[in-house]
Amino acid sequence: MKKWTIVVPAALLVMASALTACGGGSGSGDNTASEGASNSSGKKNITLTYMASQGWIKDAEMELAKKFEEETGIKIDFQNVPSDQYFNVLKTKLNAGEGPDIFGGQSGYSEITMNYNVESNAVDLSDQEWVQREDPLSVEQLTANGKVYALTIWDTYSSFVVAYNKKLFSQLNLDLPKTYEEFKNAALTIQKTGVTPIYEPIADGWHHVLWFAEPGPNYEKLEPNLYDDLNQNKKKFVDSQAMLDSLTQFKEMYDLGFFGDNVLSDTGSDTVAKLGSGQFAMSLVAQSVAQEWSDQYDDYEIEDIGFFPIPLTDNQIYYINPGGPSKFIYSGSKHIEEAKQYFEFLTKQENLQYMVDNDATISNLNFPGLNNKYTAEQQKLFDSYPERGTDIQDYVNYVNPQWMDIGKDMVAMLAGVIEPIDVLKSIDERRESMAKVAQDSNWQ
Amino acid sequence: MNRAMYPFYFAIAALIVYSVFFVMPGLMGIYYSFTDWNSYSNEVHYIGFDNLAKIFDGQAKYLGYIKNTLVFMVATVVLKTVLGMLFAMMLNDGIRAKGLHRVMLFMPSIIPMLVVGLIFKSILNPATGLLNESLRTVGLEFMTQKWLTDLNWAFKSIIAVDVWKGVGYIMIILLAGLQSIDKTYYEAASIDGANFWQKLLHITLPLIIPALMVTTVLNLLHGLKVFEVVYVLTNGGPGYATDVMYTAIFKEFSTGNYGMGTALSSVLFIVMTVLGYFVVRLMSREGNES
């Protein structure tokens, strides 16, 4: 009797907490959009929540949002989520039916249909005026079954390239590397002077995957028809020697200490500071970083910073990614019209130009008729690498949705837990399970 | 039982609420773990033990998550109990400003885990963190580590942070237990010539068993349900080295694999129930024997 008086309540306690754990799942939903009451001045008293990954919402857009609020009374509540957690948070919210009014997402057919399930979670924007003006290649990335689901305002032509400290290169008599071997030797020479060759923010979880995915056009060049074979399931990632070489070379860079000691804790927000301090010689960055670098550090002029494409597998192709972080309107939002109004406002020609003019991270946007800010070095980059190609994730299905997983696999590879070939195997496994769920006929 | 003051039906209302909001969702969760329920399709198919087979066949990384969770649980139960007991005994008697010390040790328990995590993320940063900087300043550079990104240290660091935060709470419960022990036992034992260890072994420990039982059950549950500390410190990294059951469940849910998510929850539920039952039984038996 006495024993049971202790055992039963304690067992119930255990069960209750385990069961609530099973049943629970959704995070706390905070759909803070207040009710849309118009006040006397004709302005609406509404707050739209806009959730995105860190770095997607530019400062210039926040300035524009203030103007938008002045004009319409509609306030935009920006919620920036750290990039290594963003997709978990977003998808949990979408799956729980508690999405924000506007959410940020990546582009590409498999991304928007598999990851965000746009056909049920996002509003069809095909009839919006700006769709006609936006770069058709960008629009295509956000289209599913003939309907446009998101607005992309992004510097899509400015691909990620390796920015390098030209002064240091000329001091050390280093030439612009054209192959992986030349790149490796340059990095070794730089390393000997006490400067860490490359700043690589692996802690963000997504950035280091660029090293693998962006030389994609070169893999395709080395192994003709690779992209289509991957999409038709005639080939798997493990079958590609070029991809394996690329990962192996990336691992070698890590093992040689090119990224420094602290690389697994480094974050993208420090990139400019690290480059500007002279501790690091290169970094894989958006081209606008050169402007920030020279603006913030007096020792550097804009001409002191040069660019070249990722040289893994001897890549010399400048890749194109017509997509980019995009804005979706959540289908469950109470303020769909107001969100559309915000998109209309952002895409006005003068506001797009305002973003180009006032944001250091933007050189041009994917809308016509804007005055771009390309620097001489950027122009030189475009001229020096005339060969173009699309990166893997914008062409090959089921890659972009697993971007963060690939990132984790690559870290496990760097840590020596798995081999480069295992990274490719994991990619294939995830592609297969996604394709099956999507009932892709090539996987039947 | 026949001396009960109130009839059974007085409890019905509470039982209904409990069943609807706790038992039912739990049972539904167990049912869904046998399905392929996911966010990409509106149909839910019964797939038998496929999910469970996937967890235990060793192909995927799930067994690693289970192992990590168990290691975390055992380590935190042992460390928190031993350290909590030590602090409780030290602060029970014979120390100056014991109130202040108790508050200091209890303080971490009232800070939200996310805040603690963010603070420690900065303290443990290998390049700029307080810990490595301090070690370097006092000439102990060889002891500096990449606390959260080195495979050998990441999980230990997580356990250490969790113990740092949780030990004060355990200490308070054990302290209450210690204070309820009648001092005359110790006086009598002293007169009989018992030393510190004999008193600890034959008076303190037997009499503190009920409190230890409470702390063990609490630690056990907390250990199995660990989530925030891992999520905020490493998010399961480097690679998948520090992923535990709940971070895995969270990821399954966020990628829309509800069936697999509930299957993992169900496994955890069974482990918790079995472990909890045996721990409570074992400890209540010891308590009765004494």
Automatic annotation (TrEMBL), chain B:
It comes from the Bacteria. It is found in: Cell membrane. The chain crosses the membrane at residues 7-32, 70-91, 103-124, 153-178, 199-221, 258-280. The keyword Signal does not apply. One of its GO terms (biological process) is transmembrane transport. It is a multi-pass membrane protein. Keywords: Cell membrane, Membrane, Transmembrane, Transmembrane helix, Transport. Its main location: membrane. GO terms for cellular component: plasma membrane. SUPFAM superfamilies: MetI-like. Pfam families: BPD_transp_1. Residues 66-279 form the ABC transmembrane type-1 domain. PANTHER family: ABC TRANSPORTER PERMEASE PROTEIN (PTHR30193), INNER MEMBRANE ABC TRANSPORTER PERMEASE PROTEIN YCJO (PTHR30193:SF37). Belongs to the binding-protein-dependent transport system permease family. This is Sugar ABC transporter permease.
